[in-house]
Structure formats: C-alpha cells, structure tokens
Amino acid sequence: MSPSPPPSGPLDKAANARPDRPSSVPWPPMLLVAAILAAIVLGRVAPLTWPGLDDTPARIVGLSIGALGIALILWSAWTMHRAQTTILPHRGSDALVTAGPFRRFRNPIYLGDTMIILCLAELTKNVWFVPAAIAFAVLVTFLAILPEERYLEARFGDAYRTYKARSRRWL
After folding, report:
1. C-alpha span between 38 and 35 (Å, rounded)
2. Within 13 Å and on the Cβ side, how many CA atoms surround 57?
3. Amino acid 97: pLDDT
4. Strand partners, 105
5. Could you tell me the pTM of the whole model?
6. 138, exposed or middle or buried, with CB in 10 Å at 0-12, 13-18, 19+?
7. Is residue 84 within 8 Å of 95, Cβ to Cβ?
8. Which terminus of the chain is more exposed, N or C, with fewer CB under 10 A?
C-alpha cells in the first residue's frame, strides 16, 4: 500500500513543517499586514460609528496599549537576540528562550502585534481594527503558534514541555 499524498491546504502546509523549522511560510508578518489593511479598507468602504468616547482618558488607554505592545516586541526581540536565536517565525530555532517576556508568555511578539492593532483602533477610531485584532490572533494561533509548538516540542523535547507547562500561550 502506498502512502497517501501530503495535504495541500494552507492550514495543512503550516502544520506540515520540516523538522528543521516550524513552517515554510512567514505567516505572522503576512497576517499582521493583512489585518491592518483589511481594517483600513473596511473603515473606508463600510465605516462604523466609534462606540467609545473621544476623550483624553480613552486616548491614553489606547496609546498605553500600543506602547506596551511595542515595548513587548522590542524586549522579546532583544531577548531572542541575546539567546542567539532567530526572530523569524519560519526559521529554525537554535535555543529555547525562556527568559525575559518569554518567562510568562510563549508568544509575546504576537501578543504585542495584537496590542498594536487594538491601539490603532483607538487612535483612528476605526472599529474594524477590533475584529481585525481578533482575526489576527485566531489565525496566527492556527497558522503559526500551533506549528511552532509542535516544532519546539520535537526540537527541545522535555525542556519545551516543562516550559510549556509553566507559561501561557497568550495571556
């Protein structure tokens, strides 16, 4: 009996990573750009009324979320650089990073990306950024995070399983 052909859909391709890397496609930056562009286009084509107030406290909260997102991404990138491993989501990892923001979150860069999208909602008063942030989080979970987790478990074994047990995927 011959083996069945490999699956061919985008979800299957993301799940069928090579052993030396989690995916052949850099999904997270592509999804981030797509989410932002979709929100901008939908804001122009089908604008929705902003449900919140346009006041200073709301603007401070929105800017704070964005600033924390940027800080989280920069801290994560610096931590990965110090560990001498790649920040590119479709490349193989040389080290299991569990320090810095990775101590609590397994995916702080994707969390930071989501926070920036939410900040854009407040800054532009474009409601479409909120569902775009949710869509980004869901899609990045299925197309990047789950394949990354399988890759890291295969690559680092018990060390990754221990880390996974004491850290959170998102919050």
Report:
1. 5
2. 2
3. 95
4. 168
5. 0.84
6. exposed
7. yes
8. N
